[in-house]
Automatic annotation (TrEMBL):
Active site: 95 (electrophile), 167 (proton acceptor)
Organism (species): Flavobacterium ichthyis
Residues that, per the record, bind substrate: 9-11, 173, 213, 234-235
Lineage, top ranks: Bacteria, Pseudomonadati, Bacteroidota, Flavobacteriia, Flavobacteriales
KW Isomerase (keyword) present: yes
Name of protein: Triosephosphate isomerase
Gene3D superfamilies documented for this protein: Aldolase class I
PANTHER family: TRIOSEPHOSPHATE ISOMERASE (PTHR21139)
């Protein structure tokens, strides 16, 4: 059985005190009876306190990014070793905002994935097409190439530490959501692409999350699609009631 996952990407929101407040609120409000992994990704400065705060809960903590090098003269950057040293062993890589504003390419992301895996971290790998690519019917090609360029070099046994997050760029932070049918169509395509390269077992086991304006009102319908194994949530992850209601959508 594939693991169901709901992950919240807090982006550059919440200072130290606000982070504690939101974590307390989540501890109060998240349902206990939904079988799913819950992960939150606060900003770098609050990762350490989040790990400490959540140590007796089943909520995991992820970083939103990481540098590919082990260490060195990379001012402002954070290494895998630094994350591991504070108890963070999950990292989001390839978010569309990193791709768009920080020019991250799939070749670079392949390096980051390698470094994360070398440090026995789990990777939530984000990818997805832009609006113009969907409008010109290029979306399947784009997604296939992102997977090939960033992940097809992996050994089969690396896949136990990979979580995929399909996030159509046109649906992120826009209020525009892929329809459940569009999400299912793409998730099925992604699973088949993985199967072609790595075989049925790996394709069946990998969790594929959907991201892009998931809200309490649409979560259940999207999550009920057979190839959708949960969600990566942005805006709605910043309010505990909304995030908890989205998690309920997996029930
Ligand atoms: C995201 O940033 O990964 C995301 C899915 O954002 P939102 O839910 O706000 O569209």
């Amino acid at each position: 059985m594939r693991t169901k996952i709901v992950a919240g990407n807090w982006k550059m929101h919440k200072n130290a005190e606000e982070t504690e407040d939101l974590l307390n609120d989540l501890i109060d409000k998240l349902p206990n009876d939904v079988e799913a992994r819950i992960i939150v990704a606060p900003t770098f400065t609050n990762l350490s306190s989040a790990v400490e705060h959540l140590q007796f809960t089943n909520i995991g903590v992820a970083a939103q990014n990481m540098h590919q090098a082990e260490a060195g003269a990379f001012t402002g950057e954070i290494s895998a070793n630094m994350l591991k040293s504070i108890g963070v062993d999950i990292v989001i890589l390839g978010h569309s905002e990193r791709r768009a504003y920080f020019h991250e390419t799939d070749a670079l992301l392949a390096e980051k994935v390698n470094t994360a895996l070398k440090h026995e971290m789990e990777v939530i790998f984000c990818f997805g097409e832009e609006l113009k690519e969907r409008q010109s019917q290029q979306h399947f090609n784009v997604v296939e190439n992102q997977l090939k360029d960033a992940l097809f070099h992996l050994e089969k046994n690396a896949w136990k530490n990979i979580i995929l997050a399909y996030e159509p760029v046109w649906a992120i932070g826009t209020g525009e959501t892929a329809s459940p049918e569009q999400a299912q169509e793409m998730h099925q395509f992604i699973r088949r692409t993985i199967e072609t390269k790595f075989g049925r077992e790996i394709a069946d086991e990998v969790s594929i999350l959907y991201g892009g304006s998931v809200k309490p009102e649409n979560a259940k319908e999207i999550f009920s699609q057979p190839d959708v194994d949960g969600g990566l949530i942005g805006g709605a992850a910043l309010k505990a009631t909304d995030f908890a209601a989205i998690v309920e959508g997996l029930a």
